[in-house]
């Protein structure tokens, strides 16, 4: 005989996981992977949950349907429950305990992978998710990642964090081009084809400021969505470009660094953040936090 007074008809882990997936993916269609039959199934499961809770879980006046505050809360509680159950199972079975990190590709390559090699003896299973700083912050708040690397100004209030070493940028040119001048200025880049990282950000703002002050525009021949692509394009197309110094091991092998006025003053400032409350519940997070410099 069940000890709970709750009537469980309409409530199930399967339905709750469906809701969690819809919230994580942003819509029923995405959660269903475009499968029409699964979309119908997911819609029905959400409706059954709404009957059980007595509230709307998705706002059907919006396209795609956005989760209501109640839907968000239930999804987060479900994520937390599943994560805790997985941690208990791993600990009981002496398997590798799962720890999820959210960070951009640059930080995964330059910081997390080298760091993971130093703690590889721990019985842990690291998951590195390639996310923007903004998405990392969102996922950290939603407890879908355990540690997040983001720009210093985006760390959520109340979260523990450790500042990473300020990261600088380098301007690199193919060897033949770099020898054309002994001293380079921003104006000299006017007719040099360059590869840049696509999008808008703090460094693009910095480049805009420096070129405006020099009264010139950069000759951007190619833009890429990741630093790995920028490095590959520079190497294969024999073009110059700006690269994070923390990725120095991946720089095109024969390219030469060129000093530009003011470039050394620019830094990217990142922190690695985690929930102190979660660290109190999960020993593996507490241990890693101490290694990162937390209390």
In words, what does this structure look like?
The protein is α/β, with parallel strands linked by helices. 43% of the residues lie in helices and 19% in strands. It folds into 3 domains: 62 residues, Arc Repressor Mutant, subunit A (Orthogonal Bundle); 93 residues, D-Maltodextrin-Binding Protein, domain 2; 97 residues, D-Maltodextrin-Binding Protein, domain 2 (3-Layer(aba) Sandwich). A 5-stranded mixed beta sheet has the order 4-3-5-12-6, sandwiched between helices. Strand 8, helix 8 and strand 9 form a beta-alpha-beta unit. Helix 1 crosses helix 3 and helix 1 crosses helix 4. It is elongated, with a radius of gyration of 24 Å. 26% of the residues are buried.
Key words describing this protein structure:
single chain; 295 residues; alpha/beta; Arc Repressor Mutant, subunit A; D-Maltodextrin-Binding Protein, domain 2; 3 domains; 5-stranded mixed β-sheet; 11 helices; 12 strands
Helices and strands, with pairings:
Layout: H1 13-25, H2 28-31, H3 36-53, E1 58-59, E2 66-67, H4 69-92, E3 97-103, H5 105-118, E4 124-130, H6 133-141, E5 147-151, E6 160-163, E7 169-173, H7 175-178, E8 193-197, H8 202-214, E9 219-224, H9 227-237, E10 240-244, E11 256-258, E12 270-274, H10 276-281, H11 283-292
Parallel strand pairs: 3-4, 3-5, 8-9, 8-10
Antiparallel strand pairs: 1-2, 5-12, 6-12, 7-10, 7-11
Helix pairs in contact: 1-3, 1-4
Please summarize what this structure is.
With 295 residues, the protein is α/β, with parallel strands linked by helices. The protein contains eleven helices and twelve strands. Helix 1 crosses helix 4.
């Amino acid at each position: 005989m069940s000890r709970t007074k709750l009537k469980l008809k309409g409530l199930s882990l399967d339905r709750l996981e469906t809701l969690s997936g819809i919230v994580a993916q942003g819509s029923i269609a995405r959660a269903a992977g475009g499968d029409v039959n699964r979309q119908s199934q997911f819609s029905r499961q959400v409706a059954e949950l709404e009957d059980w809770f007595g509230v709307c879980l998705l706002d059907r006046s919006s396209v795609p349907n956005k989760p209501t505050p109640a839907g968000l809360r239930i999804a987060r509680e479900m994520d937390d429950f599943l994560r805790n159950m997985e941690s208990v199972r791993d600990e009981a079975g002496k398997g590798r305990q799962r720890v999820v990190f959210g960070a951009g590709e640059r930080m995964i390559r330059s910081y997390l992978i080298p760091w993971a090699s130093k703690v590889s003896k721990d019985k842990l299973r690291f998951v590195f998710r390639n996310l923007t700083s903004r998405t990392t912050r969102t996922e950290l708040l939603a407890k879908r990642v355990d540690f997040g690397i983001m720009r210093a100004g985006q760390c959520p209030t109340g979260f523990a964090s450790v500042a990473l070493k300020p990261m600088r940028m380098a301007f690199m040119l193919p060897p033949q081009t770099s020898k054309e001048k002994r001293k380079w200025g921003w104006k000299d880049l006017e007719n040099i084809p360059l590869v840049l990282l696509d999008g808008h950000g703090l460094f693009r703002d910095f480049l805009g400021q420096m070129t405006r002050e020099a009264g010139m525009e950069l000759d951007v021949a190619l833009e890429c969505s990741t630093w790995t692509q920028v490095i590959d394009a520079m190497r294969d197309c024999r073009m110059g470009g700006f690269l994070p110094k923390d990725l120095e091991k991946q720089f095109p092998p024969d390219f030469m660094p060129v000093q530009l006025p003011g470039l050394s003053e620019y830094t990217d400032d990142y922190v690695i953040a985690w929930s102190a409350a979660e660290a109190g519940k999960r020993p593996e997070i507490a241990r890693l936090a101490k290694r990162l410099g937390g209390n």
